[in-house]
TrEMBL record:
Protein name stated in the entry: Thioesterase
Stored Gene3D superfamilies: Hotdog Thioesterase
Stored Pfam families: FlK
Active site: 42, 50, 77
Length: 139
């Protein structure tokens, strides 16, 4: 981690929601999801917020040797967003505690605030992380 990784880092990330990021596409194997409205899925929203946090801090890591993984998410999903709208995630690094990072996150679809909350990430050494995960893989 570089010494520039400090609270106060802010980042905005934009993304136009495609049909492939709507609820029916989340788990196409699940008939319950397929029958649901075609709006930005909460699961994809979470990934979008994580993406914004990653983009915010990558210049402050020794990327790609150092990366970050999500360890906790506590966000609302307050409004439905149809495909074609551009969503904007605004994130701010609030706390750096060793390798633990805490972010405030918010997303807006140009009409409504669609999400707000907190996200925690942990800085990892990719090689060590991959080795440990490899030990868990079925033989």
């Amino acid at each position: 981690m570089k010494d520039t990784l400090k609270p106060g880092i802010r980042y905005q990330h934009k993304f136009v929601v495609p049909t492939s990021k709507t609820v029916p596409a989340l788990y196409p194997e699940a008939e319950e999801f397929v029958a649901m409205p075609e709006v930005f899925a909460t699961g994809f929203l979470v990934g979008f917020l994580e993406w914004a946090c990653i983009k915010a801090i990558n210049p402050h890591l020794d990327w790609p040797r150092e990366q970050s993984v999500g360890t906790h998410i506590d966000v609302s999903h307050e409004a439905a967003t149809p495909p074609g709208l551009e969503v904007t995630a605004s994130v701010e690094l609030l706390e750096v505690d060793g390798r633990r990072l805490l972010f405030a996150v918010e997303a807006h679809d140009g009409v409504d605030v669609i999400s707000r909350g907190r996200h925690e990430r942990f800085v990892i050494n990719k090689e060590k992380f991959d080795a440990k995960v490899g030990e868990k893989k079925p033989k």
